[in-house]
Amino acid sequence: MKIEKQLDQFDLKQLIGYSVDSEEKSKRFYGEFVESGKGQLVPERFRSLMNDEELHKETLLGLHEELYGDRDYVVPQGEDLPPHEDFDSLENVENFLDALGKAIVNENNAIRIYKYMEEEYGGHSDLFGYLASMERAIWNP
């Protein structure tokens, strides 16, 4: 099933909650790369990505507060949303490459969700379009 059909069953509040959770998990995910300390450029690049994810999360929380009066988001449960990928460790090149692949899948899912939100929630289309563009730029700087 296409992701857009899956997203139709969730309202804006739920999609914001899912997206905030996704940004937080991505930040922690990139933090693992920083902690791995592989070379000098790897931690620097992933520290920058962590900061980007924090900015995205805060932007979404600001919208949640504007719309619903608080920052207490709820993450919808169920099998109809793409899972947030995780990995075990960065102990070797194979694990590292696997983790990078999962990061790309996560970012592509985020792009698709933000594009959906841009189309469905016109009053906030500029914000969701911006977030989609920022996610796209992560792997195409």
Task: Report the span from N to C terminus.
Answer: 30 Å
Give me the number of helical elements.
5
Structural class: mainly alpha
Strand % is under 5%
Broad CATH class? Mainly Alpha
- CATH evolutionary superfamily: Ferritin, core subunit, four-helix bundle
Major sheet description = none
The total tally of domains equals 1
Topology:
Layout: H1 3-7, H2 12-36, H3 41-68, H4 93-120, H5 125-139
Helix pairs in contact: 2-3, 2-4, 4-5
Question: How would you portray this structure in words?
Answer:
This protein has 141 residues and is mostly helical. The protein has one domain (9-70, 86-139): Ferritin, core subunit, four-helix bundle (Ferritin), CATH 1.20.1260.10. 72% of the residues lie in helices and 0% in strands. It has helices at residues 3-7, 12-36, 41-68, 93-120, 125-139. Helix 2 runs antiparallel to helix 3, helix 2 (12-36) packs antiparallel against helix 4 and helix 4 (93-120) runs antiparallel to helix 5. The longest helix has 28 residues, at 41-68. It is globular, with a radius of gyration of 15 Å.
Short key terms for the protein model shown above:
single chain; 141 residues; mainly alpha; Ferritin; 72% helix; 5 helices
Quick overview of this protein structure:
The chain has 141 residues and is mainly α.
